[in-house]
Q: What sequence folds into this?
DNA sequence: TCCCAGAAGGTTTTT
DNA sequence: CCTTCTGGGA
């Protein structure tokens, strides 16, 4: 791959690392104005941003020392974009892309400039972060609020505030007034009381991420110096998954960048908007286009799914947006027979047995791995896992509930933790036979943690010797995986002390707060000892640890952005889709997201035992109108 | 302490 | 849609 640090002329720039881009994508890559890119599933939205970053950096359209800011929702999306750009660009170029989550961006602003906030809104420098579940708005509203002044209202007015919408509507519902609310409603008064006690009620302030977002917006509104510094720093802004942008995020971006020369590219798919219930804006694209004079540019290609699945997707897409254009299927189909069907079962038990046998048979006959399949559910993954897991185990296929808890940490979260990744890499290096690539991985990571430059041969060599010695020692002490949790924990502790706990905390700010690092390490120990049980060897234990040969089970929401050869949606019934009437568009969007994860095949299962199919009849009608058959299986 | 009726939850990310 | 929690009363 061409990795150049000198500039390329814009007219000579070519996309890097992909065969081609469709015309509109290339247009967006080279654009110099604000764009909202609406693109369906599999259109290559992240790839478009990666190519645009490469173009701007390599042609000098984002001129040094100015930078590109890429804001994502989720950590993995932010990391994914950064690594794609790093693959395509010289280190000097890639280093001018700041790819981060919205929350990391807002927190960074508060950490840098927060002390410049007016006293009434100023958090302590060592403020703590409050996560959902660590606060109780019900208790606050019912028990901790005093009586309001007569000008605000009565005690009964306060009790009338809905607990469920207090945070969304009052606490972080709108931009914060610099001098406080001048004529507060009962809701605003209660919100202000909460703000003041969170900021000034104890030695350290306690803030949630939505609150940090609101404070960051206020900070930049009242502090033109900080705001101008950002405008000057960033020549370009990317926003991924824009359909799920919240008002808090939008307001911050608007305060910083509206009416400036910073060029914004917002990318997403309004047909995949499934977060409105969690504060996402109603029509973010239209608002953005109106406020920023952005041009809408759709993408038409689908690089993910077979032509037959793309055809069915289009039927669903039209239910969400009558004007949606038919995508161009770019991937080939590989399934003989039905690429989509509805399977009826007499019981959840029969369903589990049959699905497990089906997956096992498909793996065998078509050389597929369990990771080519996904079991999707609407909600309560644990309930489904309880029935499906034994059936798949009977076929020799482990099932992994991504939302399952290991100790106090969700499995999916645990495996994505930096500390956890490092531990696995070091274990692989030390105890596995084919450990080649882990040497480079560990060496790079440890060099980063210790601040050793890539070209510092002396220190790099010393690090390599230390790693080598540590690996030999570990091999000798743990010839087989640890048999109990205490053993696993002491193994992990010795790895952590080699890495350097302080260095870990310094490099990853998340470990600075609370007992998160210890929660992660404890969960890692628990998981390691469970995976090593039953006298398996190290390779097998670590494969299980990483879920390499397990079929994943997850909710639709967790599957967003992922893709699989075959999608098996378990439970297409009224029970699972209880909220269907509340917001039919959003529910159908969820259905669309589930369907569009598949590259080759989608199966829906139903059993009357779990519920009817009258409330969601429109979903069944859609499938029927796309020619999909229902089969009574067992 | 138990029972009952009505309310609430479920689908999420983030250092 | 079904399950679990909550508060008030016995």
A:
């Amino acid at each position: 791959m061409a990795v150049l640090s000198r500039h390329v002329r814009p007219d000579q720039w070519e996309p890097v690392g992909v065969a081609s881009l469709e015309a509109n994508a290339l247009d967006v890559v080279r654009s110099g104005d604000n764009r909202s890119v609406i693109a369906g599933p599999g259109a290559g939205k992240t790839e478009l941003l990666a190519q645009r970053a490469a173009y701007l950096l390599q042609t000098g359209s984002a001129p040094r020392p100015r930078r590109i800011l890429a804001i994502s929702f989720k950590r993995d999306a932010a990391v994914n974009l950064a690594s794609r750009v790093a693959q395509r660009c010289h280190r000097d170029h890639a280093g001018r892309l700041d790819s981060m989550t919205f929350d990391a961006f807002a927190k960074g602003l508060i950490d840098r400039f927060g002390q410049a906030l007016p006293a009434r809104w100023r958090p302590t420098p060592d403020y703590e972060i409050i996560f959902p579940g660590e606060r109780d708005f019900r208790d606050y509203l019912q028990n901790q609020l005093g009586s309001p002044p007569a000008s605000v209202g009565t005690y009964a007015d306060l009790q009338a505030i809905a607990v469920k919408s207090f945070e969304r509507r009052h606490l972080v519902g709108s931009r914060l007034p610099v001098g406080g609310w001048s004529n507060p409603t009962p809701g605003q008064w209660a919100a202000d009381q909460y703000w003041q006690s969170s900021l000034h009620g104890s030695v350290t302030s306690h803030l949630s991420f939505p609150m940090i977002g609101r404070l960051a917006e206020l900070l930049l509104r009242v502090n033109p110096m900080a705001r101008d510094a950002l405008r000057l720093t960033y020549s370009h802004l990317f926003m991924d998954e824009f359909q799920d942008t919240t008002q808090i995020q939008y307001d911050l971006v608007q305060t910083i960048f509206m009416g400036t020369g910073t060029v914004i590219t917002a990318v997403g798919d309004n047909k995949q908007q499934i977060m409105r219930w969690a504060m996402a804006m109603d029509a973010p694209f239209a608002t953005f286009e109106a406020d920023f004079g952005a041009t809408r540019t759709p993408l038409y290609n689908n690089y993910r799914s077979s032509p037959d699945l793309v055809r069915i997707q289009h039927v669903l897409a039209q239910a969400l947006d009558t004007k949606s254009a038919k995508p161009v299927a770019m991937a080939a189909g590989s399934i003989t027979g039905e690429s989509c069907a509805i399977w009826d079962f007499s019981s959840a038990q029969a369903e589990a047995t049959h699905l497990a046998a089906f997956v096992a048979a498909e793996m065998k006959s078509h050389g597929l791995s369990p990771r080519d399949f996904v079991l999707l559910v609407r909600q309560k993954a644990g309930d489904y896992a309880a029935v499906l897991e034994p059936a798949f185990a009977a076929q020799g296929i482990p099932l992994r509930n991504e939302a399952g808890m290991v100790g106090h940490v969700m499995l999916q979260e645990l495996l994505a933790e930096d500390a956890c990744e490092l531990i696995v890499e070091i274990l692989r290096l030390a105890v596995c036979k084919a450990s080649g690539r882990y040497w480079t991985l560990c060496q790079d990571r440890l060099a980063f943690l210790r601040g050793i430059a890539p070209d510092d041969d002396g220190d790099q060599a010393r690090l390599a010797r230390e790693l080598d010695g540590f690996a030999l020692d570990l091999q000798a002490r743990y010839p087989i995986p640890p048999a109990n949790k205490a053993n696993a924990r002491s193994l992990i502790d010795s790895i952590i002390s080699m890495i350097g706990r302080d260095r870990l905390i310094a490099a990853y700010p998340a470990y600075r707060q609370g007992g998160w690092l210890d929660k992660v390490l404890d969960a890692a120990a628990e998981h390691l000892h469970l995976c090593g049980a039953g006298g398996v060897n190290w390779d097998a234990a670590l494969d299980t640890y990483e879920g390499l040969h397990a079929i994943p089970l997850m909710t639709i929401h967790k599957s967003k952005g992922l893709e699989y050869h075959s999608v098996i949606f378990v439970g297409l019934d009224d029970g699972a889709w209880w909220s269907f009437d509340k917001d039919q568009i959003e529910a159908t969007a969820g259905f669309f997201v589930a369907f569009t994860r598949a590259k080759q095949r989608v199966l829906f299962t139903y059993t009357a035992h779990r519920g009817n199919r009258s409330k969601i009849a429109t979903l069944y009608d859609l499938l029927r109108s796309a020619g999909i058959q229902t089969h009574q299986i067992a």
User: Anything to note?
Assistant: Chain A has four domains: 10-104+222-299, 109-217, 308-398+551-632, 409-546. Residues 457-477 of chain A form the longest helix (21 residues).
